[in-house]
């Protein structure tokens, strides 16, 4: 299989997976609001998307490391998650919908951490091309956000689950484009080495920083669309604003390798955290000023793009080859999972008690704390050829 074919096969699943996110994240809270759920119920249901990331990636990552059959696990997760999503069409009420969302996201959230390992292994010595492969996920997200937003200008939001069905089919179909891996069983790692890595102060700081980063995104992923709707923006405008953030993310992925030539990893992290804090303050206070809102969305390049690209390097450097799968799962579970779920839930209380703006101010406070932790304890990750960290 040639390099070009591998590139397109790897890019395909990223495209469909993030297209599904593009159809789900910006509009699902509006769909839930249209179904008559309260702000706290919406926050709980949106948190469930992140909640299963606490357990699912670690379980599936362990199975992937143990068996080496990550492609088969990705296929199983894609198909099973798509089938379970069909429970949404039963209109099961709050608790039934919560169960459906927990069930389908348990399998769906297993896909990406496994696929990140597959991608990096497939690229081999060409890992610098990761950004170019991953940017197709951003393209899929933008296409879905804009397409669904345009359709929702013509049809009711209650049709959203039907609009997502073809994208689920795309995810399932793309999972079968890669050939199955050979049973790549790794030799047993030194006993207790994973514990030594995760208790190292630099690793603890890394996870705390990313945990707080995702807590701060809770208001964005749960209430940004509702916040915009309250300020008079329509569905298409909401979709385009979401898309603008991801366009900036694509631009960042394309130039990230150049930034690392001029700035240290710690400098990139500190700068991105500061810009993220500024972003939440601007959204909280100046949503009605369109140029400011557009600038705030461009800062998505910092708050997601730069920090995720750097974090992939951190996981690879900290955990090494023996624990790469489990390290990726911990990164997903402890940050996107626990941090994202807590952020969504806390933002629900802030919106219910105060306003959507208060929730974004909460995100800014989380970023201020993350900057203090990063400045004090975070260090650069080991190089590709270095030994994994130990607690000594």
Automatic annotation (TrEMBL):
It comes from the Bacteria. One of its GO terms (cellular component) is plasma membrane. It is a multi-pass membrane protein. Keywords: Cell inner membrane, Cell membrane, Membrane, Transmembrane, Transmembrane helix, Transport. One of its GO terms (molecular function) is lactose binding. CDD domains: MFS_MFSD6 (cd17335). Gene3D superfamilies: MFS general substrate transporter like domains. The chain crosses the membrane at residues 12-31, 37-61, 73-90, 96-115, 135-157, 163-180, 192-213, 233-256, 263-283, 328-346, 358-378. PANTHER family: 3-PHENYLPROPIONIC ACID TRANSPORTER-RELATED, BLL5896 PROTEIN. This is MFS transporter, PPP family, 3-phenylpropionic acid transporter.
């Amino acid at each position: 299989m040639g390099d070009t074919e591998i590139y397109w096969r790897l890019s395909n699943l990223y495209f469909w997976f993030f297209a599904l996110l593009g159809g789900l994240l910006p509009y699902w809270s509006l769909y839930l609001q249209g179904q008559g759920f309260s702000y706290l119920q919406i926050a709980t249901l949106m948190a469930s998307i992140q909640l299963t990331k606490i357990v699912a990636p670690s379980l599936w990552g362990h199975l992937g490391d143990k068996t080496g059959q990550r492609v088969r696990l990705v296929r199983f997760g894609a198909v099973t998650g798509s089938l379970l999503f069909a429970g949404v069409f039963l209109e099961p009420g709050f608790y039934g919908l919560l169960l459906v969302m927990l069930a389908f996201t348990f399998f769906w959230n297993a896909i990406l951490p496994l696929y990140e390992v597959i991608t990096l292994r497939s690229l081999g010595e060409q890992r610098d091309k990761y950004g170019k492969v991953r940017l197709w996920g951003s393209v899929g997200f933008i296409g879905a956000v804009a397409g669904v937003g345009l359709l929702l200008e013509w049809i009711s939001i209650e049709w959203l689950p039907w609009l997502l069905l073809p994208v689920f089919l795309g995810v399932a179909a793309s999972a079968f484009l890669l050939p199955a891996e050979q049973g790549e069983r790794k030799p047993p790692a030194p006993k207790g080495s994973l514990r030594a890595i995760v208790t190292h102060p630099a690793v603890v700081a890394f996870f705390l920083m990313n945990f707080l980063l995702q807590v701060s995104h809770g208001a964005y992923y749960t209430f940004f669309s509702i916040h915009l709707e309250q300020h008079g923006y329509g569905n298409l405008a909401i979709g385009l604003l979401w898309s603008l953030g991801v366009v900036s993310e694509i631009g960042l992925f394309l130039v990230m390798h150049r930034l690392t030539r001029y700035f240290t990893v710690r400098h990139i992290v500190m700068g991105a955290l500061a810009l993220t804090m500024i972003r939440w303050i601007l959204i909280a206070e100046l949503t009605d000023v369109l140029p400011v809102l557009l600038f705030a969305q461009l800062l998505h390049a910092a708050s997601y793009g730069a920090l995720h690209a750097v974090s992939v390097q951190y996981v690879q450097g900290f955990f090494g080859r023996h624990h790469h799968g489990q390290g990726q799962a911990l990164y997903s579970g402890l940050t996107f999972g626990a941090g994202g779920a807590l952020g969504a839930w806390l933002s629900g209380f802030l919106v219910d008690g105060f306003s959507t703006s208060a929730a974004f101010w909460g995100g800014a406070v989380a970023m201020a704390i993350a900057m203090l932790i990063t400045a004090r304890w975070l260090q650069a990750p080991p190089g590709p050829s270095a030994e994994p960290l130990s607690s000594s």
